[in-house]
Amino acid sequence: MSRLADYFVIVGYDHEKERSGIKQGKIIQRYPQKDWEDTPFNQGIELFCQPAGWSLSMHRQPPKFFVSVLTDIDADRHYCACLTFTEPVAMPTSKPDDEDAERDDGGLVHGALMFAPKSLALVSRLDYYETFRNCIGIIYTVYIENMPIQLETLVGNILGCIQVPSPGGPQVRFSIGAGDRQALQPPLSSSLPVTHTSVYTFFHQMGIHNSLTLLSAILSDHKVLFLSESYSRLTDASHALVSLCFPLKYSYVYIPLLPAALLEVLSTPTPFIMGVHSSLKNDIADMLDVIVADLDGGSISLPEHITAPKIPDPAYSRSLRSLFTVLHPDLQIADYAFPSSHVRATTPTMLDKEIRAVFLRMFAELLLGYRSCLTVIRIHPEPFITFHKAMFLGHRGMVEDEFMNKVLDSMSFNTFVSERGPPYKTLDMLDELYASIERMLREEEENPDRMLKNVHELAQQLYINENPNPQPYVQKIPRPTEGSHLRIHQPMFPVIDWVQVQDIVDEGVSKQNIKSRLNQARPQQLKMVPMGPDIVAIGQRQMAVDSSTRRLEVLRNCVNCIFENKIADARKTFPAVLRTLKSKTARLALTHEFALHVQSNRAMLEHQQFDLVVRLINCALQNDSPMDEHGVAAAFLPLVTAFCRKLCTGVIQFAYTCIQDHPVWSNVQFWEQTFYSDVERHIRLLYVAPQEGLIADAEPALAPSSPREKQSPLGSNWGADAFRTGITAENRRSVLMRPPQKKALEIAAEQMRMWPHLSPEEQQECIQNEESTVYSQAIHYANRIVYLRVPLDISKGIRSPMSFEESTSNSNFTNSVAESDSFDAESGFEEDTSEVGAQIIRFCSRFVDKVCTEAGVTNEHIQSLHQMVPGVVTMHIETLEAVFRECKRLPPIQKPKILTPSLLSGEEIVMGGLRVFLVPDGRDVATGANGGPQLLPAEGAIFLTTYRVIFKGTPCDPFACEQIVIRCFPIVSLTKEKKIGSQYLTHIEQTMAEGLQLRSNTFQLIKVAFDEEVDSENIEHFRKMLHRVSMPQTVYQMFSNIAAQPPTPLHREKMAKNATLKAMAKKTITKTARRVGLKQKQSSKRQKYVLPTPVIPRRIVTMSQTSYESDASASGGERPLSSNFEDELSVIDEVGTDHPFAMLQRSNTLEKLIDRCYCKDYQRLGFLHQSAGMSVFPSKISGSYDRNRLSPRGGSRWVHNLPGLGTIGSNLTRTKSESFRISTVNVNYTVCRTYPAAIVVPSAISDDSIVKLAKTHRHNR
């Protein structure tokens, strides 16, 4: 039993603070003045008594009642029931100066009559809102009606004389001493929320779809804010939304009435449910991550980047249909020609319960099979149970469902598992509904009218839970007369004598203690929780069989051929087996078949056997997800530590060194769930009957085992029983005829029932055995993590994705021992300080720390595990060094011979064949999808010729390996070349690092993955040659014109003399320099020319004409690439501003502008001035030099007459309106490398200004 109310508080307006401009309330009186030991007083109640803020009003306000919810530091909720009324207050006013002499009232100052709010509040840990309203209303009635009853008696009786029984107790009838008669009825179950009519009111305000959206939002950890003009509606709506979440409990911030002074709390990063008065709507308009629900308008507002995930079907559709049937019964008969006159009339209270019944059914359907995924880790002294999330999502087909993933990862679901996971506890309505929901849904599918009947029966149970007493009790509650708050002469609320109140409270508490000892509550009856439907059976009904018996038989025969060393026969069906492994059933069958061929801790294989086994394991893991929802990776764990091959004397390679690239091994949740599954199996073996224990004793020991039993290689997966007895495929039927064994939850329930009857010695023995089991498995899994996480080649680092290391686990765990300083002890080994070793140690230590602390392992054992991990990592790295060294000595796998393609007449190979794999590109051509042989992927080589890009090879499928695959297209038709990252090829079980995708305008596509023997340099060289051949410099270099334009003997002689443009340019520059009197400077790196007389030079950067011409042509008429530009730069030491060589370079560069496309555009637009009657040689530029006008860039002003273009120059350029000119300041690309040589600028801007402005921009742009 507990007190009805803990504190009675009187809160009034703080007039002292009001004089300084601060409007707030203060606690005037509180009773009792001394805090209760079990319930300390909550500070800040004055803020919640007036959520919109404390202020004076000019009119009398009617009394208002509402309930605020406060949360203490222990996350316990306290309910503050407030009744607020107003009292008159005389406010002094200043008198005018001109009226001082005329006043005859003796100098008194008249005041303005204002009304200050005052609140009477009851603070309690219980949520009996109506009882609070009655009690606090009686106190106000006695005050306002001036009844001859002491307020001290009323307050003392409320605080000390009324004790509320626990849920399931009898009805309490009481009076607080004002002639009242009241009754208080606790609910039958403490877990079911009490809503009265709040849920019905919430749906009436928001509608069905908006209500479902808000429910989905809070279950997926979004922020929800309610707005309303009514405080009571805010509280009721928040309570209704939280009640709809049952059986989940909302665990985040819950403030139904947020005071105006605490609006900054809305910026918290955690999810919340809050309510704010509509008058504060403008203060919260800038929130971008909050879903706002307007209760008065019935609308919700979702930010643009936030979407509430949809509840998965069919639960959502079925619930939506049920809600329409309950809330709108006339909808079904709206189209009837002769509707019935009898429409079902339901009270708001029953409608409230029917709505809750619909949602209770929805959650039972969503969580169907969850008890099959509970894992028992410890039974004694307290049960510790976890939830296998991946198994649940996999069998229910919800791996990709956003809503269920968020719900299962939430704090609410963790609380749900910890409270409802134990198999021996007090049952409630949900446990019974969960056991029968599947049967009910099947009946409703056959008879849809059955749905409404089932909902009504469930609603009736909810109603009885809130109203268990069928006999009505007429209460008598004094109420004030209507309009009593408008009385003019109303006295102030009196001061209550706290001594008298304390005496009444003490006397009442002493009497209640005696009654509580005499009337002990009945102990709650504990029962075994029904298991409900099995998750495996649900998954088989929901998902069709995806593998035929014939395919599984082919898989079995292939595995048998491998272990019988019939490699040729195994390779015939190997591709079909790889395709079969896309099925979940086939992957599980593969693990079972492998387990049947392991007869001891180690299975030594030949090299070819080892390779095929590893390829099958890699294919199975590749087709599985990182969550391992079907337990495939968990089943492979003991197998990969058993399969091995001998490399040399003393060096053995295990299969786990070849399967480390899969992301499942870096998923923390996978390791935790697999560890918990194995621990559960061993805990079960501690308590099974002797005849069941004999079966477990017969299993071979593949790994370190617990003190009592040994471990099965298949863990908790199907087929493990067959392996335990050591049977083979011939006597599988006897295994299927074995009677079902007790599940771990059933054994745990029996042990929890027997626990109080055990002696202390027996209890201690059970605790020690369970702890030893967990500890031994922690050692075993620490070694497994090291095996699967340390790469074979330690120099390449960890190749698997690291994003899973920081993933959240399925429980909330703090107080990390691994990161504390108390266990920082030496391990006895020289610890590996490399980056990979440190990552593995950190990963393993966190795993050990978490699972051992949750499972109740002692600190001494956890410390020893932390000391062991660094040594295990170091020793394993040393062992892998010898394995890696011997692996490199293995003979390489023979690859198919490269087939040379047939060439056309005149076609030549530009670049030899690079070994590649032609992979499917998304089309169904040659993939076997439309019938015919599967030609892709194909292994061969890619060739680059002067005309085509050619792939030629053979299919990887051995049934089609005699055919030739050729794919090609003309090189000039190449439209797009795309570099592809690493991709996994299923048929060869390899991950290719690089690839290319070539697309042509002939509707052809070549997608290749380069073999591992092709290095990055050859791939990059192939790409460069591809672009060079596809875009020739001239049309004469195209394949169609090569034969038509044979080079003449004179041309060939010139080509031999000046083989390249670079050599020609170098020779031209050398001759020109000699003519002008420059001497060549000896240098080992680059030729530089200096004057014979030592002067102080200025340095300019120029580029040779020939090199520029070559690069410009290669780049399609644009400026040369930056790499070529830098390679051809020469540094010229300049003596004066009018050096002839610089002028020659400038003129030669300007000569090439006539071939530029933008110069022709300038001419077409009228920027260039045409010169009539110009006498120009076709191969020269006639220029005039003006020494009196010097260029700011170290050159003279030049005027150039270009053939066919007229006059262009830095000072003589003309435009149509003389407002623009063409500047050649960037003729050598010395100002900006990415701008053209000739640019159009305003005439008022000089070249010097352009140079200065360019320096102020990025890259001189």
UniProtKB/TrEMBL annotation:
Pfam families: DENN (PF02141), GRAM (PF02893), Myotub-related (PF06602), SBF2 (PF12335), uDENN (PF03456)
Family: Belongs to the protein-tyrosine phosphatase family. Non-receptor class myotubularin subfamily.
UniProt cross-references to Gene3D superfamilies, sorted A to Z: 3.30.450.200, 3.40.50.11500
PANTHER family per the UniProt record, alphabetical: C-MYC PROMOTER-BINDING PROTEIN, DENN DOMAIN-CONTAINING PROTEIN 4
Ranges of residues in domain UDENN: 6-427
Highest taxon, organism lineage: Eukaryota
Name this protein carries in UniProt: Myotubularin-related protein 13-like
CDD domains: PH-GRAM_MTMR5_MTMR13
Domain called Myotubularin phosphatase: residue spans: 1192-1261
